[in-house]
Amino acid sequence: MSNNGGIRITGRYNSAPPTTNLLMQPFELPEFEAFPSEPESDAAPRAAPGQLPLSVQRVDMCLLTNKKNHNTSAYNIQNLVVRRGQEFIMKVTFSRPLTQTDDFQVEFMIGSKPLASENTLVVVTFGSRQGGPWSGRVVEAQGQMLTLGITPAARAIVGKFSSYVAIATANGIQRTRSDATTDLYLLFNAWAKDDAVFYPDEAGRKEYVLNDHGMIYQGSIETADSVTHRSWDYGQFERGVLDACIYILDVSKMPITDRSDIIKVVRKGSAMINVQDDNGMLVGNWSNDYSMGTPPTAWTGSVSILLQYASTGVPVCYAQCWVYAGVFNTFLRCLGIPARVVTNFISAHDNNGSLTTNLVFNSDGSLDTEDTKDSIWNFHCWNEAYMVRVDLPPDLGGWQVVDATPQETSDGYFRCGPASVVAIKEGLLCHPFDLNFVFAEVNSVVVSSIKDRYGTLTKFKEDKNYVGKAIYTKAINSTAYEDITITYKYPEGSAEDSMTMARAQEYTSESIQPKLPKAWLLVKMSAAQVQLGQDVNLAVVFTNQSDVSQTVRAHLTGSVIYYTGVRASNPFKNLDFSVTVGGLQEKSTALRITAQEYLANRGSLVSLSFVVSGRSGDQSVSARQVVSLQTPELTVTVSGTPRVAQQMFVTVSFTSPFSFALRDVIVSMEGSGLISPKQRSYSTIAPGSKITWKESCIPQVTGLRHITASLDCSDLRGVTGFADINITK
């Protein structure tokens, strides 16, 4: 009987599969390993008569050359970092020049129980003695020094390897001692055509693998110009981050051998970024009470989160969807996987896989929160990872949705994906993984029903075009967004769109519902963009398509909501009103909501939800309008000489435009390669007053760098700012 972390494995394995790369390294290859049946005491280096025995004097991993060739120079780490499926070089200096009778090999080991049969012990041979999954060649011989070229297999295990040089003696193998300086990290390779993550475009590889800064889009698409952006510091090259990403896989007890498989790695990462069911990294919190941790709106990047988790082993508080997506993006890019953060505006959360989102209204027109189980998020952030899907038809590879926000379980864990974006667009929901759920997020039909006093539901509206209004990601070489909606869905109302929906319906258990009779009463609602603290002006338009004048008894409900669509408090507005609309006419009603009505109830990422419903005769109508209240931005400026190793200064300033004081304010800033994460607290920012915070920094790397800053308190969430600066040598 064996035991692995308290798990009994009797009858399942001869021994537990290794699951640790960094957490422990109890195994080292012995310095001498006898050939079978040969006693170690007789060991002697093999040499021709009169020739000195061969030994290794020095091993040079050629860090500068290899890191440049493998696009890994940015990793702030002392060891070699290379990508699989691509040759790297190492120089070995022996005690004397080699002869034809000399025989040596290079060995690489990962995990606690290295075995050649599982590719966790890889032997690289040279000359006529070729074999093994990794290839080797002698690039150059100069006296006692050999330059060796080694090419890891394109499906090699990803992680940290120990390396040894071994010389054949008369009776066995004599190895170099274990040396931490010759350990190497092996990553996925978006530049190698045989790697499952090969990305065919160089500009895309620079953006989706090498860019350590991004923009995450938020807000609401319903109100003109109300989409906002949040600068995010991915920091995948910062010191300790690569080890933290491998640590995540170790904590998950993912078998070492599975870490060559891109599908298994992203699926495990999706589960581990959240804390649910596996002691993962981030604790979600949508309550607006963040007293036991850091508010999700206060984070400026991934580095602090990853390093805190790796150093303590304790889940980090708190996250919401953009935090999960930002950290997951760091994890993916750090391991070499092309990845990007995507925002779906008007995102449905379908609880039962029916591809419909059901909204239930009471007879007075208010939303029934007890019977309405589904929700519609103003926006939802997830990730896309680029890969070949060997488990699917060939044309379903490319971008895959992967989501770490814990919403629904997938094979028993809170995770999502990889779900083929092409399969989503075509409605091919028969394939793995989680295609039904993601398809509903962008295509769900919103069904509105009214409940009478007996609890009977009567469907009165069906909206096929409300969900998935727009899908954005950061554009290549720009801080602007790229609209990628067309990659997920055909244009609304097109023949292809109808075919997709029909095809998707075939893969669900939901029966096709009869069509509703054509409505003769319609309602629409709109609002202009509004700053926090300003009044909201709503325009409600009723359209009467009958030829008889109609009087509509209407009800307006106004609530502060979280961006997930969940109400943050009791409605602050309940208004009954009547509108008479002439035959074949429309009537617009202006409704004004004062700032005083909603300010007392403002919540996280302040959004207001207005639902108007009406009834005339046998006709019921409803419309929903979300108003994302805009907040001021931080001003971030940089001064000094923008040069490596030269002192510079970063200044963050903010002037409060509000009539109320801000209390217990936290201001944060960070910028990979420029300034480490920092925070400053302010007990009070009085109405109309200004704060200024200046910090010094010394740039460590050249190129375009970014400073990200945030201001956060219980009275005001989601205030951000950023600055770009080009650092020279």
TrEMBL record:
InterPro entries assigned to the protein according to its UniProt record, in alphabetical order: Ig-like_fold, Ig_E-set, Papain-like_cys_pep_sf, Transglutaminase, Transglutaminase-like, Transglutaminase-like_sf, Transglutaminase_animal, Transglutaminase_C
Domain Transglutaminase-like: 313-406
Active-site residues, as the UniProt record annotates them: 321, 380, 403
Keyword Calcium: yes
Record GO biological process: blood coagulation, fibrin clot formation; nervous system development
Cofactors required: Ca(2+)
Alphabetical list of SMART domains matching this protein: TGc
Swiss-Prot/TrEMBL keywords: Acyltransferase, Calcium, Metal-binding, Transferase
Entry EC number(s): 2.3.2.13
A GO molecular-function annotation: metal ion binding
Family: Belongs to the transglutaminase superfamily. Transglutaminase family.
Record protein name field: protein-glutamine gamma-glutamyltransferase
Species of provenance: Channa striata (Snakehead murrel)
